[in-house]
Amino acid sequence: MWIFKVGVVGAGSMGGGIAQVVTFAGLPVVVKDIDEKQLDLARRHVEGIYQRRVDKGKMTAGQMQEKLDLIEYTLDYDDFMDVDIVIEAVPEVMAIKEAVLKELDEACPPDTIFASNTSALSITEMGAATSRPHKMIGMHFFNPAHVMKLVEIIPGEETDQDTIDTVEQFTQELRKIPVIVKECPGFLVNRLLSPYLNEAVLALEQGAATAAEIDEAMGRDGFGWPMGPFFLMDMMGIDVCAHVGAYLVTQYGDRLVEVQLYQKLLDAGRLGERAGAGFYTYTATNARPLEEIIQELQASGEVETGTRFGVDRLIMPFLNEAALCAQEEIANVNDIDMACIAGIGMQVNKDGDLVRMGPLEYMDEVGLDVIVEKLEALEEEFGPRFHPAEILTQKVRAGHLGKATGYGFKEYTT
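and the corresponding structure tokens:
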């Protein structure tokens, strides 16, 4: 099946960004929302992306207008009668997504593919709300969509192979990197990020370190990430992080501990960079200070205090989750590494040089025996959320320690 026209439902920053990506590939797109003001925001967002290209000399004003003419903004489904794929980018609430999909089921031809941009929710459950579960698939873009290269493609239980193949080819036509991911809560990248971000918030609310100290330790001059966890969460939106985090806590039990600080920030209106304040203060200089919120939380006895922060406390849960994804065959080992490089820009600071490297290769380089020792020490200090994945202990027992022995998650020439 070929994609000739695209529908996007939800004109938030992601919906607008996805529409821009589609038009940049030369395809027409119709963007639908229930709010005219939201459509105007999406229109300005898309125009802004293209205008920056014009300002940099990457396209002419005429070429920009040709791209903009490919987009139609609408409050109804009248122009969805001939779309080949619809990408929904509505809020991360299953009931809302199911309601939209039922509307699309009535408005679209039987062969139209329904793709969800959800970052964590069940594709199979969404498909069950339609008359075409075989045409339901996850198509998870990363923010900002016009910059980030990775797209996770998540088939549901009933998604047919033609739909998978079509969406994979379509993703490549959009000049993105598709990774096929087995359905699980959080899929791949967000599943890996969740214990890392969760542990960062725990360390902060417990007083183990400040947000700035943690970001510095994890950033380019520290471990090597493009940005620390708190800058990342501010960019993603605290509300999004809180919603996804709460959902994954219910799904992964002992590997995640529910944090209290998210809700305190939401109550204070500190929703992240777009709201002017999150873990950091941007334009909302009158926002309630983060330090005051944390002190109040600690005084209430709702959180543990006096714990220790170190880089391993954050990076080891991330690595352990990557090992579990390999163990569960959520994606193949090369795709797990590539997804972390393309989706979150993972890199490692090696003696001042920033080297792009995924979590499995990184563990192979450090030594899987060293990783297991560190996880066991953290488990003794902090609890069962640091328990090493079975695949790690199995490989260590087999002597497959990584690059030093020629075998780990990958094979190496020694």
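(Above: one complete record from the training split.) The radius of gyration is 22 Å.
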